[in-house]
Specification:
Layout lengths: L12 H26 L4 H28 L5 H21 L7 H31 L1
Helix pairs in contact: 1-2, 1-4, 2-3, 3-4
The structure holds fe (ii) ion (FE2) (2 copies).
């Protein structure tokens, strides 16, 4: 499970709020997938859950990218590239999902947990430092 940590706070209320919402959604979804794994997987359901994570995450990235563009953030391109890498791997995981796949949950959890905790601490925190320094 992905756990909210104080060190993830970047100090922009709207973004911190969305980060917490994302963590909640991801944890809720992982539990649902786990429950479905135990009762026999329903591919359709799992794809719906993954699709929701993808949609909410890409809406969040769009907000962040809009703010970065607004303040002419010089590290915009690599930050956006990191966002796209996560969205691509979510799509890959969706493509690879089969009803028999017992490793899906673990792969999804590993990818999301490591990506988000790294990204919050590095890219998002750097964006906030730049924004505070130029204000
Ligand atoms: Fe973010
Ligand atoms: Fe970001």
């Amino acid at each position: 499970m992905l756990e909210w940590k104080e060190e993830f706070r970047i100090g922009i209320d709207a973004i911190d709020h969305e980060h917490r919402q994302l963590i909640d959604l991801i944890n809720k979804t992982l539990s649902l997938i786990e429950a479905e794994n135990q009762t026999g997987q329903n591919k359709e359901e799992i794809l719906n859950h993954l699709g929701e994570i993808h949609a909410v995450t890409s809406a969040h990235f769009a907000l962040e990218e809009q703010e970065m563009a607004q303040i002419k953030y010089p590290e915009f391109a690599p930050h956006k590239t990191d966002h796209e890498a996560l969205l691509d791997s979510l799509l890959d995981i969706m493509d690879e999902t089969t009803p028999e796949d017992s490793t899906l949950l673990r792969r999804l959890e590993e990818r999301l947990t490591s990506w988000f905790s790294n990204h919050f601490r590095t890219f998002d925190a750097a964006f906030h430092r730049f924004g505070s320094a130029t204000n």
